[in-house]
């Protein structure tokens, strides 16, 4: 008995690098996904699973005029004969082919629950039934006439078509969606009548330009309708490259109610948008107060879509309300176009509109040639038999004698009348009743008709011009059956110009509510509803007191200037509520412990600020430039050694002078234009100091009129105004002079 070590291995073992094994196997997987699963064929617009579904249903004789069969029977046949994959994936493909809101021209006629536009799933396959539609019949027409190549099925027991004859331009008409490995396809549905017009023109003018093609096919035609609002230039670019997108909006109208009120009714929504999720999104925006102009949304849909929007008041502009919804919901969506398909050589590539149309025409031309040759073969066989019959009728007595007397009648007939084997076999298989004179006349008529048909087919095969005339006639018949004059072919998606720019006020999307913001000395911040004029009753932690008191709106942004020279940005709606003591602003901003809050301002676009540090340096800057995009803030004022940012002052609209006072109690006034406007940096010197640094700074408007002049508030609360400032007027970076009588001893303007 031999040991296990001496046993022969069951298979060949080879040493290969792991990277080579992985790349080979992944390449095989990728090619399988691209060729056999995800990308449609440009000729029939079908993926393998869809093609196998239609072919299996044809074999089950589920023609449009026949009865229905259970979907489970169809799925079982597809799995068993053609497509050995999961039953649920095959049933999902079948369901989609039957959904009128998924396919512009459904290929399967479903009976039962096949899902709905709300996103609800179809019933189980044992409850639903299916049969083919007339459109599917167009795809399969002529498949028995050797029009397409057949290949063995996965188990080799039968054959399946590599592509369908496709007398219907299914790729553009119904579109396709798919994701493969490293590539994807996305083709929206189009109108068959328009496609037929473009095809007929291309037959007449093969070198047609894209401008003319877009005249025939101005854009997609979605089964769910809607309004296409993409510009023509963009559409032209998309079709000429095979890549791009289309902007689609919901269709809406207003309905007048009593008392001058109205409501908006949405009757069509963009393609592949689930109505239930759309309504949930609108309701969520209302609850989150991000659609201030909208009061309520209701779904009153039955068979047709009817989504009712109730505005807040009769004064709301419907166009503004809808524009805000278009910006925030899928009432406006983009349908992408990426015509990545398998061409006639089964090579995946992105085609433009003209190439796709030409591929369909070439396919139809090839189908005509193949079907003509197939028919010629059938006619030749039949004519051979008929000619044998005619010889038999001319020599009927001799034929009967040979059949009665000869042991090998077949060979005798062939030798006597120079018949072919097929003709001799046909004569021997004739019934006696076929020997009547009337049968001879019928055979002669049939022979003449087939001979004429043979000559016609030979003429078709000989002349390309004739073949394209026949293809044109086939396309005209298709346009007549499914064109825009028919109910099924009527265009559902309207083509519109680019929408006008509607200015959507902030109130339309976010509710503005007044706030009073309180921040304590120790940096605890909170926001109270409404604009409070007296905060004497506001409570603070023991040992703490109020510092900042600001009126704002929930839509405002706050600019927070810290002693490190950084600006932080915080939304007013992000602040804690007025109940309690609030939250530490330092923690919200992640501010270092050794830094303090200098000032808190409500952001005003284009407002100018004056920034200053304790060492008497600074500059002007626009509030637009201090907005911080990150939580860590934005460094604006660079500081010298030992200095801290200490002033953030909003410059008045007409202010033209700057007043600076130092810790040495010297006051200097100079023109604002001497102070540069910078985006960041240390700035310039305001005032020279021998000892100490900056104490306070402000801007004012010079003059003697009311509201002009330098003002300050003393310790008793009185306001002083000085219009004569000549004694303190100087150049920036001068030393200054002692302030006028009555100026506070704390060296602050108040």
TrEMBL record:
Subcellular location as annotated: Cell membrane
Site, as annotated: Interaction with DNA: 47, 83, 85
InterPro entries: GyrA/parC_rep, Gyrase/topoIV_suA_C, Topo_IIA-like_dom_sf, Topo_IIA_A/C_ab, Topo_IIA_A_a_sf, Topo_IIA_dom_A, TopoIV_A_Gneg, Type_II_DNA_Topoisomerases
The reaction(s) this protein catalyses: ATP-dependent breakage, passage and rejoining of double-stranded DNA
Pfam families (UniProt xref): DNA_gyraseA_C, DNA_topoisoIV
Keyword Iron among UniProt keywords: no
Transmembrane segments: none
Keyword terms, alphabetized: Cell membrane, DNA-binding, Isomerase, Membrane, Topoisomerase
Record's bilayer topology term: Peripheral membrane protein
Catalytic residues of the enzyme: 127
Occurrences of domain Topo IIA-type catalytic (ranges): 39-503
Enzyme Commission (EC) number: 5.6.2.2
GO molecular function, one term: DNA topoisomerase type II (double strand cut, ATP-hydrolyzing) activity
Lineage top rank: taxon: Bacteria
Keyword tRNA-binding among UniProt keywords: no
UniProt site positions, description: Transition state stabilizer: 126
Family: Belongs to the type II topoisomerase GyrA/ParC subunit family. ParC type 1 subfamily.
PANTHER family: DNA GYRASE/TOPOISOMERASE SUBUNIT A, DNA TOPOISOMERASE 4 SUBUNIT A
Subunit record text: Heterotetramer composed of ParC and ParE.
Protein's job: Topoisomerase IV is essential for chromosome segregation. It relaxes supercoiled DNA. Performs the decatenation events required during the replication of a circular DNA molecule.
Name under which the protein is recorded: DNA topoisomerase 4 subunit A
Protein source organism: Kiloniella laminariae
Gene encoding the protein: parC
């Amino acid at each position: 008995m031999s040991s296990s070590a001496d046993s022969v291995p069951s298979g060949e073992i080879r040493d290969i690098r792991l990277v080579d094994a992985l790349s080979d196997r992944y390449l095989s997987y990728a090619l399988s996904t691209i060729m056999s699963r995800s990308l449609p064929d440009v000729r029939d617009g079908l993926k393998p699973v869809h093609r196998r579904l239609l072919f299996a249903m044809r074999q089950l004789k589920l023609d449009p005029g026949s009865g229905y069969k259970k979907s489970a029977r169809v799925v079982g046949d597809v799995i068993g004969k053609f497509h050995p994959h999961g039953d649920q994936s095959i049933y999902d493909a079948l369901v989609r082919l039957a959904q009128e809101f998924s396919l512009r021209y459904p290929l399967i006629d479903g009976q039962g629950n096949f899902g709905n536009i709300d996103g609800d799933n179809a019933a189980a396959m044992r409850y639903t039934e299916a049969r083919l539609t007339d459109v599917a019949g167009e795809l399969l027409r002529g498949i028995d006439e050797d029009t397409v190549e057949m290949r063995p099925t996965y188990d080799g027991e039968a054959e399946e078509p590599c592509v369908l004859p496709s007398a219907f331009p299914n790729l553009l008409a119904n579109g396709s969606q798919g994701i493969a490995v490293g590539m994807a396809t996305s083709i929206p549905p189009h109108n068959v009548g328009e496609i037929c017009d473009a095809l007929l023109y291309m037959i007449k003018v093969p070198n047609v330009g894209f401008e003319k093609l877009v005249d025939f096919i101005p854009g997609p035609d979605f089964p769910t309708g809607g309004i296409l609002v993409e510009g023509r230039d963009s559409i032209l670019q998309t079709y000429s490259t095979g890549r791009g997108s289309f902007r689609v909006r919901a269709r809406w109208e207003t309905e007048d109610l009593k008392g001058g009120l109205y409501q908006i009714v949405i009757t069509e929504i963009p393609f592949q948008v689930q109505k239930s999720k759309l309504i949930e999104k609108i309701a969520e925006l209302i609850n989150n107060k991000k659609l201030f102009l909208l009061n309520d949304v209701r779904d009153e849909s039955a068979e047709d879509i009817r989504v009712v929007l109730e505005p807040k008041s009769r004064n709301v502009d419907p166009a503004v309300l809808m524009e805000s919804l278009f910006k925030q919901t899928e009432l406006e969506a983009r349908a992408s176009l990426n015509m990545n398909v398998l061409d006639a050589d089964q090579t995946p590539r992105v085609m433009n509109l003209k190439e796709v149309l030409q591929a369909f025409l070439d396919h139809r031309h090839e189908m005509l040639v193949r079907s003509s040759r197939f028919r010629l073969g059938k006619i030749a066989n039949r004519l051979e038999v008929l000619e044998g019959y005619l010889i038999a009728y001319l020599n009927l007595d001799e034929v009967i004698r040979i059949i009665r007397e000869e042991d090998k009648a077949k060979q005798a007939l062939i030798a006597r009348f120079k018949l072919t084997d097929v003709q001799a076999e046909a004569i021997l298989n004739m019934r006696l009743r076929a020997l009547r004179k009337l049968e001879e006349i019928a055979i002669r008529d049939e022979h003449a008709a087939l001979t004429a048909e043979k000559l016609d087919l030979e003429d078709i095969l000989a002349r390309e011009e004739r073949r394209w005339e026949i293809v044109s006639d086939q396309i005209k018949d298709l346009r007549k059956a499914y064109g825009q004059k028919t109910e099924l072919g009527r265009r559902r998606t309207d083509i519109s110009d680019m929408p006008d720019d509607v200015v959507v006020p902030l109130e339309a999307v976010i509710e503005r509510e007044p706030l009073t913001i309180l921040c304590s000395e120790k940096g605890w911040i909170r926001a109270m509803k409404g604009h409070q004029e007296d905060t004497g009753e506001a409570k603070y932690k023991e040992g703490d007191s109020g510092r900042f008191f600001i009126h704002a709106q929930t839509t405002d942004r706050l600019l927070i200037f810290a002693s490190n020279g950084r600006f932080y940005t915080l939304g007013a709606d992000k602040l804690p509520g007025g109940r309690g003591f609030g939250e530490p602003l330092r923690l919200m901003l992640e501010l270092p412990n050794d830094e303090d809050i200098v000032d808190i301002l409500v952001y005003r676009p284009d407002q100018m600020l004056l920034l200053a540090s304790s060492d008497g340096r600074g500059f002007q800057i626009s509030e637009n430039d201090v907005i911080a995009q990150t939580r860590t803030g934005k460094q604006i004022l660079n500081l010298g050694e030992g200095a801290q940012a200490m002033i953030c002052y909003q410059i008045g609209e007409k202010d033209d002078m700057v007043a600076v006072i130092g810790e040495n109690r010297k006051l200097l006034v100079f023109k604002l234009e001497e102070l540069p406007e910078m985006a960041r940096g240390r700035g310039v010197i305001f005032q020279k100091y021998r000892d100490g640094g900056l104490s306070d700074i402000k801007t004012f408007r010079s003059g003697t009129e009311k509201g002009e002049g330098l003002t300050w508030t003393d310790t008793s609360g009185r306001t002083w105004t000085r219009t004569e400032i000549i004694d303190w007027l100087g150049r920036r970076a001068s030393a200054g002079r002692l302030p006028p009588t009555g100026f506070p001893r704390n060296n602050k303007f108040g």
